[in-house]
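Re: Re: ligand-bound prediction request (bumping)

Still looking for help on this. To restate: I need the protein modeled with 2-acetamido-2-deoxy-beta-D-glucopyranose bound, output as structure tokens. Inputs repeated here so nobody has to scroll up.
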Amino acid sequence: MLSGCSNINHEAEEEGGSQQTDISPQDAQIQNPEDMFTVQKRTVLMAATVILIVILVLLGGVVITACRLMEVIDQLNTDVHKEFPSLSRKEGIVPEEVWRWIVAAKADMTLNPQSAHYLLKVSSDNKSLYQASLSSPPRVPTNETYLLCSCVSSKNLLNTRAYFALKVTQRVPWTLGLRTESFNADRSPDTDPNAGIWTIASAEGKIIINDGKATPTLHVTPAMLGLYLDYARGQVSFYDSVVKRHLHTYLTTFKEKLRFYAAVQVGQLETQDMLISFV
Ligand SMILES: *[C@@H]1O[C@H](CO)[C@@H](O)[C@H](O)[C@H]1NC(C)=O
Ligand SMILES: *[C@@H]1O[C@H](CO)[C@@H](O)[C@H](O)[C@H]1NC(C)=O
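Reply:
Sorry for the wait, this slipped through. Here it is.
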């Protein structure tokens, strides 16, 4: 801008200088038509330069304003995201953007057929759990097989943010959630978070919180359950994933990787119904 201004002054001085010579304007026209043409050309060039500079300055202003706006929007987004973890464990229906943020952490879960108690059977795609047919041949247990507890674990070992949904039976009682890798339900009850297991249960169509006191809730057992882990924050949350309602959150500090865990009460009646199934 400054150099543009000094150029203008410089040009103006030159023009003034040529007018101070003794040659009459007529002579000038006759003798130096090229000079006149040059002066006009310079004026046009100068005007064009000034216009260009003005446009550049305006454009610069627009770019700077846009950049500032982006920064402000970025800041707003960060602030909103900061709220997401606390909103993810608030009572009631989860806000839509928070739900999208949770579901974006979707983990592809599979059950470990080797872990299943002999009364339970994992589907061939390792996604669903059924009652084993009493006529099916006995399986040889491995060191991962539940021998006493009618339980199953996931193959997945989790230690990040992870979300998954599963269909759950409303017909028979179950307990499910996450357990540490070393927790063994054959030896310890699955209802005490201090032992390294964070679960909820379903009994008589209602959800119970296994916080060590088996706290009953008014929540009806949903057809589809959402489970969300934020390992770094020590958070395990359960949702009715049909209506996106928060059911319960455990807050703790994890020291071990976690597996999905489910115990289902079977044996009284033979049934072909799906008990739980990852979706
Ligand atoms: C299911 O698990 C078994 C045992 O780990 C494995 O051999 C099989 O490939 C798995 N099936 C699928 C479809 O992942
Ligand atoms: C089972 O045995 C395998 C290999 O022997 C071992 O890697 C694994 O940690 C064992 N699992 C459990 C639950 O003890």
